[in-house]
Design brief:
The protein is an all-alpha fold and 237 residues long. The protein is built from 13 helices and no strands. It is 78% helix and 0% strand. α1 (3-17) runs antiparallel to α2 (27-52) and α5 packs across α12 (177-194). The protein is rod-shaped. The mean pLDDT is 81.
């Protein structure tokens, strides 16, 4: 059962018990406890309702929908100043660049265009007419696989060299890549926020806070009931 409804039922039950003649000795405590508990619970329920819905003649109600532009801006500021700062993006690149391994890329690369370009260059050179005597391009074709293997080994050696790693790190550190990534993230966030409507913002906040808002009603009833019981004990009959 809904916590708010249960709190109201308990408060009404206390009021009802105060009307039973057999409980006349504690009727005042029960009545005050029930009334104050019901008052506290209903007041908090109204306050919660006013957060999300506009209530006629009640200034400040529906504040989440009325201030949804400020809410969106706060989300954007939170994301960009806490999660995607330039320092954090820089740290990410510094960490990730150490994990860059281009060997699998090289090993899966098709070097056929390179061999074809080499073959065409040879055939168009002075050696072409000589090779035509021995089968032309078909004579070179048997070199395709050895050429590919040697190119792969050479490229792997290059990308694993310290000089290449240093150059790659230098490029990443001095290029506009980091700022471009930050700008792209901000653009994505802004576009998503621009798509939000007041109703979507209201539902988003309500979903996030529903569980805790229910407890506000419960504790409003509990403290209201305690204040009511204390009042009944302190006030003269």
């Amino acid at each position: 059962m809904n916590k708010s409804v249960l709190t109201n039922i308990v408060a009404l039950l206390l009021i009802g018990l105060s009307l039973i003649p057999a409980l006349e000795s504690v009727a005042k405590i029960l009545l005050f406890s029930g009334l104050f508990a019901l008052s506290g619970a209903l007041t908090n329920q109204l306050a919660i309702h006013m957060l999300f819905e506009k209530v006629p003649f009640l200034y400040g109600s529906g504040i989440i929908q009325l201030r949804f532009e400020a809410f969106k801006e706060a989300i954007r500021e939170l994301m960009m100043t806490q999660f995607f700062t330039q320092e954090q993006i820089t740290h990410f690149f510094e960490t990730e660049e150490q994990k860059i391994n281009l060997v699998p890329v090289v090993e899966s690369t098709d070097f056929s265009p390179a061999f074809d370009a080499l073959s065409n260059t040879v055939m168009e050179s002075n050696l072409g007419s000589m090779l035509n005597m021995f089968g032309g391009e078909s004579a070179l074709e048997q070199l395709r696989d050895p050429f590919t293997r040697k190119m792969q080994r050479a490229m792997v050696k290059i990308v694993q060299s310290k000089a290449f790693e240093t150059q790659l790190a230098h490029y990443i550190n001095h290029s506009t890549l980091r700022q471009d990534v930050k700008d792209s993230i901000e653009t994505i966030i802004q576009k998503r926020l621009d798509a939000l409507t007041p109703v979507m913002v209201k539902e988003m906040v309500h979903t996030l806070m529903r569980e805790h808002l229910g407890w506000l009603v419960v504790w409003g009833g509990v403290f209201g009931g305690l204040i009511g019981a204390l009042s009944a004990l302190l006030l003269p009959s």
